[in-house]
Structures are given as C-alpha cells and as structure tokens.
Amino acid sequence: xxxxxxxxVRSLRLALPVVVLAMLAGCASPTPFKPADADDxxxxxxxxxxxxxxxxxxxxxxxxSRQTVETYLLYRAAEVxxxxxxxxxLTANRDVERNTSYFGNxxxxxxxxxxxxxxxxxxxGFGGIGTTDLRPIDxxxxxxxxxxFKGTKPSDQVNAYDAxxxxxxxxxxxxxxxxxxx
Length: 182
Hints:
The chain is an alpha+beta fold. It has one domain (about 30-110, about 125-175). The protein has three helices and five strands; from the N terminus they run αββαβββα. It has helices at about 5-25, 65-85, 165-170, and strands spanning about 45-50, 55-60, 90-110, 130-150, 160. Strand 1 (about 45-50) and strand 2 (about 55-60) form a beta hairpin. Helix 2 packs across helix 3. The longest helix is centred in the N-terminal third of the chain and has 25 residues, at about 5-25.
C-alpha cells in the first residue's frame, strides 16, 4: 500500500467515528411518552401485581435526561390510577437504574513485528503507541410500585399523590410521539 493511500485510510479511520457520532446526535431525540415497543424498548411498561397494586417502569434513550424519565414515570403512575377508576396512589419501591455504554475511538501507531493487521495467520508485533478516547453515554430506567386508592388523598402521607393533579400539572411537559419541540 502506498504512503498516500495509508494516510487517506488512517484519516478515514479517525474521521469516521466523529462523523457517525455527529449524525447520531443530529437525529437523536429524547424518548417520547409512549408504551415501550419491541423495536427499541424505550417508553413505559405497566405490570399488575394485585388488583390495586401496579409496577410502572419508564426507560429512556441516551438523550433522555434522568429528570424526564422520572417525570414520565410519575405521570404514567397517575394515568394508571385514573384509568383503573382510582383517585390517588401511594408509592413504594422506587428505583432508578443508570445504564452506561461507551462510544469512542482507539488508534494505534507504530509497533514492531510482521504480519498484517487483521490477518489471522500473521504474527503480532510489540511496542507502538496507542490512544483511546471513550465517552460514557448514560440512559435511565425508572421503576415504581404503586398502591391505588379511592377518595381524598390523606394529607399526612408524604408518599401519597393525587393522580388528577399530577395529570394537570405535568401534562404540559409531556412530549408525545409526533410532538415538535425545539
């Protein structure tokens, strides 16, 4: 391979991850408030534990903030409460998981030995210099167990939430599929 070709190949190897990341960042948008589907797994899921107990979860993608994930979780808990004919809920077993993956680039220079890169029959070399540039990318999944009740929310229960008030107060901040924000 000529030196000019090596320079072009090395430049493309260095530039490709940057171009891919820029394309992904341009196309990516936060997970909207929607049921989770098999395509991406992002959105909300409900699981009935008992007639008046439900586990609610919301999973966001890597551009959905933790605060948004927790807001959507609380909003979904309020929706479930009203849909099932209840007025308020008590929370229990609340948790947020952070999932971290890494995106980056590794570049190696030099080294001694013989054989070709990627050649399974070649022999590896030794020495050389390499750089690794990895960036963490976080996404969040929040879980909440709720117990549903009818009537007026007790004022002495700090874990009690009025479902209709939540729907009214958080509703304007909920991004649904197809909503344009910018």
